[in-house]
Amino acid sequence: MARIAGIDLPSEKRIEAALPYIYGVGPVLAKKILDECAIDPDTRTKSLSEDQINKLQRAVENFKVEGDLRREVQNNIKRLQEIGAYRGIRHSRGLPARGQRTRTNARTKRGKRITIGTVRKEVVAKAAPATAEVKK
């Protein structure tokens, strides 16, 4: 199993599909890295030689990935919150920050909500005797 940038890449996948497991490396950057290292994209991760793994590690080090990239993103969000920007406020409230509608949808950001509608008869039946005793 190849370990690049602190991430264990899946050994059964093609290296072109395994590199995007690293945070900050997408399909386009993976192809660019493989071209730079002269590695066939169809090669399985388990069949890479130590020399090829070292080439990949050096190539990935040239880009901001994993911890450094996560830290930069968090600092950007914190900066927006501190200056009181609209996007910072949206981040702190846990709402979409890029203009999406929130009347419906936005479930990924806001979480699943319970619907407020007609109350079930069982709940009403349980609550009715309790309120009747209070009125006496």
Structure description:
There is one protein chain. With about 140 residues, the chain is an all-alpha fold. It folds into two domains: about 5-65, Helicase, Ruva Protein, domain 3 (Orthogonal Bundle), CATH 1.10.8.50; about 70-135, Irregular (30s ribosomal protein s13, domain 2), CATH 4.10.910.10. It is about 50% helix and about 5% strand. The protein contains seven helices and two strands, in the order E-E-H-H-H-H-H-H-H. The chain has helices at about 15-20, 25-35, 50-60, 65-80, 85-95, 105-110, 120-135; strands at about 5, 5-10. A hairpin with a 2-residue loop joins strand 1 and strand 2 (about 5-10). Helix 2 crosses helix 3 and helix 4 crosses helix 5 (about 85-95). It is elongated and about 75 Å long. The mean pLDDT is about 85.
Gist of the model:
By secondary structure, this protein is mostly helical.
Count up the helices: 7
**How many distinct beta strands?**
2
Question: Biggest β-sheet, characterized?
Answer: 2 strands, antiparallel
Tell me, rounded to a whole number, the average pLDDT: 86
CATH architecture of the largest domain: Irregular
Percent in strands: under 5%
Structural class: mainly alpha
CATH uppermost class of the largest domain? Few Secondary Structures
